[in-house]
Amino acid sequence: MATDVVTRIAPSPTGTMHIGTARTALFNWLYARGRGGKFLLRIEDTDRARSTPEATQAILDGMTWLGLDWDGEAVSQFERKDRHADVARAMLREGTAYKCFSTQDDIQSFRDAAKAEGRSTLFLSPWRDVPEDQHPDAPYAVRLKAPREGETVIEDAVQGTVRFRNDQLDDMVLLRSDGTPTYMLAVVVDDHDMGVTHAIRGDDHLNNAARQAQIYRAMGWAEPVWAHIPLIHGPDGKKLSKRHGATGVMEYAEMGYPPAAMRNYLARLGWSHGDDELFTDAQALEWFDLDGIGKSPARLDMKKLDSVAAWHIARMEDAELLAEVERYHALTGAPPLSQAQKDGLLAAMYCLKERARSLPDLLEKAQFVLAERPIEPDEKSAAALDDVSRGILSELTAQLQNDIWSRDTLEAALTAFAESHGLKFGKLAAPIRAALAGRSATPSVYDMMLVIGRDETLARLTDAASRRD
Ligand code: GLU
Predict the structure, then answer these.
(1) Helix (H), strand (E) counts: the chain
(2) Which pLDDT tens digit goes with each residue over 375-398?
(3) DSSP letters along 414-443, please?
């Protein structure tokens, strides 16, 4: 039944949360949540040397920021090591695994000899069929008694049928001689115990799937549906790396892309639904399916991300957008907004959210409600406040004193003023922008005048008119 779907994201906590991990998490989340199923989080922290609490926190933060909520507590793979070892011992009892007493040196000698004789260096343990009563009293690893002939075949929802020759897969170690489980065993036991029905993950794990399938089959457990998705590439078609730009999901948060936009953008990185580029979560949840996942790697495209973000920003509720701005400020360490600034932003949101590609882009346009008198112009707008312009502003201020403060009257007044001074409208608008916002990228002068009101507009125009360099 559809409601039985259980997916998971199983990141290794060894650094920041990679954008590829975020995309995989999103696919799993969409697949489960769109079917009333469960989405789980497992931290694959078995590599004690490389796993850090900070990296685990980075994953939790990244998931939370992206709005990918998971069911229940995050599972620590390391904490389940006794269960993993129990399964290895059960396999020993059932004869699907065996004790291998070969030391590292034995294995190396085997390989050296194989190489010298031009044979495959794949290790074939001499202990595979040695009965228990001939075992030495020595440390041993537990190895899977993997099939030696034929093929291990994976039916993959993205890659199709994938075949692996069994004579190229060795008897993998399940439990090391120090009693610790291997990653390969841990993943299978955890996925089985967590009831995972669909393993949607990067195709760098496709080879692991063959080995993991062998463990499932040895245990007689049902395998999940495998879905190995192509990795994300950079714009040049090469595997995504730092030199292409941001690879950590929180870097995108710090660049001010709203998470809703990021979800839309990441969903389209490798998955498609017809020609749909811009969509809501509700649509993605309804549409997402494994057959929409492409077989070739998707390319990161920042221009596209900008246009997706602009669409989401424009359609967000004002209050929601304000909450995103506050979150962005907290994330980047900017001082919190005052009540007056929040009120100003809300009043201006209607004209800020059109054509803003990111939250900092929106905030740049919002300077006219965020800044306080006296407005300090940036370099570019200071240049618009030369002597002539100041004279013009001073005249304009006088003319606006008695006008009714509405869009129509302001438009009429400014147009008439520009005409009577033989000015193109842009020539008039530039010093007004400088006076009201101290910036050249602003909403229209009318929007600014209406949002801040008559008194504040006239005060700022007067300030600018009397400004001395
Ligand atoms: N821990 C693996 C990773 O970070 C994921 C393993 C899996 O999804 O099965 O890539």
Answers:
(1) 19, 12
(2) 999 999 999 999 999 999 999 999
(3) HHHHHHHTT--HHHHHHHHHHHHHSSSS-S
Q: At 457, is the secondary structure helix, strand, or coil?
A: helix
pLDDT > 90 fraction of the chain, expressed in percent and rounded: 96
Please check the confidence at residue 2 and state whether its pLDDT lies above 70: no
Calculate how far, in angstroms, residue 12's C-alpha sits from the geometric centre of ligand 1. 7
Q: Is 46 in the pocket of ligand 1 (CB under 6 A)?
A: no
Same domain, 454 and 407: yes
| 44 touches ligand 1 (CB under 6 Å) | yes
Q: Which of 242, 295, 303, 304 is catalytic?
A: 242
Residue 3 has pLDDT above 60, yes or no: no
Q: Is 13 in the pocket of ligand 1 (CB under 6 A)?
A: no
Cβ atoms of 233 and 301 within 8 Å: the answer is no
| DSSP string of 223-273, one letter each residue | PPEEEEEPPEE-TTSSBP-GGGS--BHHHHHHTT--HHHHHHHHHHTTB--
pLDDT tens digits for 289-322? 999 999 999 999 999 999 999 999 999 999 999 9
User: Of 262, 291, 309, which closes a domain?
Assistant: 309
> Domain of 248?
6-76+233-309
> CATH code at 170?
3.90.800.10
Residue 169 parent element (H or E) = none
Q: State the DSSP string of 114-166.
A: HHHTT-------TTTT--GGG--SS--EEEE----SSEEEEEETTTEEEEEEG
CATH of the domain at 453: 1.10.10.350
Tell me if 199 is assigned to some domain.
no
Q: Please indicate whether residue 187, judged by its CB atom, sits closer than 6 Å to ligand 1.
A: yes
Do the domain assignments include residue 320? no
Same domain, 85 and 177: yes
Q: Is the peptide bond before 139 cis (omega within 30 degrees of 0)?
A: no
**pLDDT surpassing 80 at residue 468:** no
User: Which among 201, 208, 232 is the best mutation to test ligand 1's pocket, defined by most ligand atoms within 8 Å of the CB?
Assistant: 201
In order, the DSSP letters of 199-217 are EEEEGGGHHHHHHHHHHHH
Give the chain's domain count. 3
In this prediction, residue 196 carries a pLDDT of 98
